[in-house]
Task: structure prediction
Amino acid sequence: MTALPYKVILEGYIDGKIIPVNIVFVDKKDIEACGLSFREAIQRLGKAFEGPTAINIFDMDAVTTTSDGLMVEGAIVCMGAADRGLVNNDFGILSMAEIEYSEEIIKNEPHLKQWQAFFAQRKLYRGPNPADKLIPVHNVVISGRASNNNSATEMMNIVTMEELIFPILGQLTCIKGGEVMTGFTGRHISVGIGMTVAEKFGRVFPHPQFHAGETAHGSGEYAQTLKQTIPCIVCSKEILAQAIIRALECGCVPARELGCAPAVLAVARAMGAEIAVERITPSAQLELDSVGCTREWIMEKGSMTKEEVLARAEEIIPGVEEAKNHAAEEFVLNKQLTL
Result:
């Protein structure tokens, strides 16, 4: 009898922080080995759960980018939402668009020099193509109470309005195994979420809108509170530091190729790497100031080596309040769906 393996984080609580929906991770290769389409897999997995459920399909051979421009291995290629065993036919499933490699897109999106340098021949996925399907703002799928939002990195029970921030690096760590952090998103990440790069079919914005050095929030001191008290599951700060350092070594400069998120600025500052301070707009700087990332702080250059930054990543990178470290295996369950 054929079985589809998957991983799941069950709806409930971790460290007293709410997990508002079941969160399912499934590998594209396993779906294909079972002879299923993405839609069929999401529908069948949805039937396995009574409660609201987010379902993310991954291509672990592909790459994606974070909203601030870091490139990472492993990409969500389709997302779904289910509730009471049902998936809404119109709004419950959405595939991500493959980004075709070209010299033009590298020119328009210079953070993609990481693609050239480290991930040649890998497929790139970020968000859906709005021309394929009319979708709401923020690239979301919904079925009943389940909302799988921002291209499957923010989940919500839309009846209780409980929410979880679950960045792509945190999800990838849950799939691969390793150390993750749980806690509240906090002030620094709340500000950092708005420090995006402009991308075609981005995870949050379908069209290029907010360039490196700008803020998508534009809400001044209020930006630090937007996501501050929302629970999150994120990768360890060492894993995040590795991704930032790789981008810096590739010639990506914060506020020029990379977004000016506090985490990116903190690593670049510690290493004495170039930061395009002059490109940080007044509205973005106002938000950074609110969490202590003043222009004077940014311009204080350190001289740490890569190894030193990795060893002291938890001290260097700000973000996550009431943080607690876990092995992902503590709450990520391995399951099989009998077909």
User: Anything to note?
Assistant: The mean pLDDT is 96. The longest strand covers residues 53-65.
